[in-house]
Amino acid sequence: EILTVTGVQTCALPILIIGDEILSGKFADENAPFLIQRLRALGCKVRRVVVLSDIVEDIAQETARSSADCDYVFTTGGVGPTHDDITMRSIAAAFDLPLVSHPRLEQVLHEKIKGELTSAALRMAQVPEGSELWWDGGMTFPLVVCKNVHIFPGVPSIMRLKFEAVAERFRGRVLHTARVVTGEYETDIDERLELAVERFPGVSIGSYPRYDEGPRHVIVTMEGLNAEHVRAARIWLEGVLKPMDLLT
Fold first, then answer.
1. What is the mean pLDDT of residues 142-156?
2. In the 3-class helix/strand/coil scheme, how is 53-120 assigned residue by residue?
3. Could you tell me which of 35, 37, 31 has the C-alpha nearest to residue 17?
4. How far apart, in whole angstroms, are the C-alpha atoms of residue 93 and residue 19?
């Protein structure tokens, strides 16, 4: 069968996970696995995932590099009111921008927090100069975007809500996928896979061995923009690879 996914890899981006709590093992990262799956469905290819400590220089350097060589950059974490929430300051440093208090964010904080705002609360209104505010989906507190850097919170439940609110901004074209399962070893099918790559240049072909899902087998995947090319690659591979039931 040919599976159609609404979205094709039309852009590339890194995910920067920020926080000592991830590197120390206090908490397991939940944001990168979620974003990888959702971005694939939408059409974005994740170039890399980088986990960064709460060090301004390190975050700034990686942000600047990622912004220069990718279409988008996603960051998660470090946007709260405490002393170790330094993401906004770091991104400002990445682009040599001042960190300024955004009047609209101050207004939102005043509406949410009755009475005088503390210095900690006001910290949440500080963004790199020139940042955009995205209010998609009726957000009560916007997503901050600086150049091509999209600054998400680290709390998984809040990050997911914000991402889903803006997800349609990243949707691409249609990707067609298929798979063939064989009981042969990867080392035995390598030459046939190389032939498939040569015969079907518009189709991305990958192989993935499995040892803990029943009998040993290899899943060969095909992906491409043209459904007929993907179908042709699947039919050809089905003809040259031995199915599992002939080897068990």
1. 97
2. CCCHHHHHHHHHHHHHHCCCEEEECCCCCCCCCCHHHHHHHHCCCCEEECHHHHHHHHHHCCCCCCHH
3. 31
4. 17
Q: Is 204 helix (H, G, I), strand (E, B) or coil?
A: strand
Residue with tokens 């590099």: 65
pLDDT in tens, 79-123: 999 988 999 999 999 999 999 999 999 999 998 887 788 999 999
The residue behind tokens 């031995």 is 242
Other C-beta atoms closer than 10 Å to the C-beta of 110 total 15
Buried b (16+ CB within 10 A) or exposed e, 192-221: bbeebeeebeebbbeeeeeeeeeeebbebe
Polymer length in residues for the chain: 248
Q: Are strands 44-52 and 11-18 parallel, antiparallel or unpaired?
A: parallel
**114-141 as b/e: b if 16+ CB within 10 A:** eeebeeeebbbbbbbeebeeeeeeeeeb
